[in-house]
Inverse folding.
């Protein structure tokens, strides 16, 4: 996230706010942390304040919404680490963790399709396990996915059917909107949590 200085960034599905913290630390003008879980948003706000202080928290908006509601939030960059386990792998995930991994659909890419089809952002950055063939996706109105970083990581045991040795490549991919939408100078307040 070191290239997001002076940008408006959406952390889609923010969870505990790792992307929000990284973007704000790199100088993002403003970050919109989006999640459907109010506790995740509260955790994000607390983590931003704890790690970066109240000045960074003032550049953070919390938005309780799901990915089908992303369109109103225009930004230069949307970053997401979506659920990407193919549905066939979910039975191998412990029952109390399945809600964190459900949403990948048959091929593991349904969540990223949802995000790209609903965002107003000019650029989307996402993680994707190489076993999923993210590079073959086509999104009308968007550039072809481009891998900007690749690393080898251990996989959770639930991936064994696709990644037998449970160690393999994971990429960070970017897509660019062919005609960027205009970006608001500051996102509207959309949070029940307030603005700092």
């Amino acid at each position: 996230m070191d290239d997001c200085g002076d940008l408006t960034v959406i952390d889609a599905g923010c969870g505990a706010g790792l992307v929000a913290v990284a973007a704000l630390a790199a100088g993002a003008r403003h970050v919109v942390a989006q999640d459907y879980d109010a506790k995740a948003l509260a955790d994000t706000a607390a983590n931003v304040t704890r790690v970066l202080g109240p000045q960074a928290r003032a550049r953070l908006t919390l938005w309780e919404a799901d990915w089908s509601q992303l369109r109103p939030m225009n930004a230069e960059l949307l970053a997401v680490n979506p659920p990407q386990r193919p549905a066939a792998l979910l039975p191998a995930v412990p029952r109390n963790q399945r809600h964190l991994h459900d949403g990948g659909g048959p091929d593991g890419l349904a969540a990223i399709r949802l995000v790209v089809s609903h965002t107003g952002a000019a650029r989307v950055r996402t993680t994707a396990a190489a076993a999923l063939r993210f590079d073959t996706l086509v999104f009308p109105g968007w550039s072809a996915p481009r891998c900007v970083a690749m690393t080898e990581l251990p996989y959770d045991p639930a991936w064994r059917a696709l990644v037998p040795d449970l160690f393999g490549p994971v990429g960070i991919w970017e897509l660019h909107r062919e005609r960027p939408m205009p970006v608001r100078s500051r996102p509207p307040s959309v949070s029940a949590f307030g603005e700092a």
Notes: The beta strands are 8-12, 30-35, 60-64, 77-80, 123-129, 146-154, 167-176. The longest helix spans residues 38-52.
